[in-house]
Structure to design on (276 residues):
């Protein structure tokens, strides 16, 4: 039986851990050949190994999405490895919080660069590749629908105290989504967005654990205040935070043929929570 995404070529940024890892594994399980990306080599190669051990195909593209040459490099990896590009998932991200009066320019630009500038650059780099493929398919009498899924957050929809940078970037990615849906419709590309609520990953773990992540040479604390975390979970109609696998399912919905006529939309994946 043919799998839903058989032989599709997918880029998933930030896919060595958490939600991105779950997305990469889900797409691969449905037949996609995946370009896995992470800041660090070890988690990226672990995901590649997990995919290949299950009979799938994957390669790694290591590095920060904010690097000036990254967009061309990851698009080039997809084309050189699998001779195509069908799905782009702009997932890589992290938070670096502070109230606005204490937020530095460095904090502001770091988060904007990761969540908004990097997806813009990747999509810009992908356009000539997709355009060339679309023209060749049209000449051959074929119609292939390609998919872009950008990752936003409920913070981008409703704001969140201490996250002026993150909320602004996540609001921006929704605007980019709607614009590209209009620009790329002529190439048979759907462009949609998933806005997450509370999904349980290392970035939303209990801050009392004192965990941190090294991102672009910065040691950044991760996690959520335990009292706030408990309050957030109680406010979710389903009564809990989501799993990375559930988060991946929302992205998958936009990658399958059944959503070929859905574009320019933002889907909230929040357990029923309608505002924060």
């Amino acid at each position: 039986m043919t799998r839903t995404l058989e032989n599709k070529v997918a880029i998933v940024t930030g896919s060595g851990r958490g939600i991105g890892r779950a997305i990469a594994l889900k797409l691969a399980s449905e037949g996609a050949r995946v370009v896995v990306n992470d800041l660090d080599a070890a988690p990226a190669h672990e995901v590649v190994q997990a995919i290949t051990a299950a009979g799938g195909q994957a390669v790694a593209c290591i590095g920060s999405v904010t690097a000036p040459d990254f967009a061309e490099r990851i698009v080039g990896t997809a084309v050189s490895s699998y001779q195509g590009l069908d799905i782009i998932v702009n997932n890589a991200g992290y938070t670096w919080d502070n109230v606005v009066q204490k937020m530095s320019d460095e904090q502001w630009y770091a988060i904007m660069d990761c969540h908004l500038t990097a997806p813009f650059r990747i999509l810009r780099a992908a356009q000539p590749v997709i355009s060339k493929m679309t023209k060749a398919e049209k000449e051959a009498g074929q119609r292939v629908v390609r998919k872009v899924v950008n990752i936003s957050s409920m913070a981008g929809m409703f704001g969140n105290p201490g996250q002026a940078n993150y909320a602004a970037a996540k609001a921006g990615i929704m605007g980019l989504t709607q614009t590209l849906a209009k620009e790329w419709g002529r190439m048979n590309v759907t462009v949609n967005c998933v806005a997450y609520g509370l999904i349980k990953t290392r970035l939303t773990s209990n801050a009392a654990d004192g965990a941190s992540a090294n991102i672009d040479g910065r040691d950044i604390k991760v996690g959520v205040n335990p009292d706030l975390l408990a309050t957030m979970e109680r406010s979710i109609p389903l009564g809990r935070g989501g799993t990375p696998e559930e988060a991946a399912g929302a992205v998958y919905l936009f990658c399958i043929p059944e959503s070929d006529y859905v574009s320019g939309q933002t889907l909230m994946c929040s357990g029923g929570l309608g505002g924060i």
In short: Strands lie at 9-12, 33-38, 57-62, 87-90, 146-153, 189-196, 212-215, 218-221, 266-269. The two ends are 43 Å apart (CA to CA). DSSP finds eight helices and nine strands in the chain.
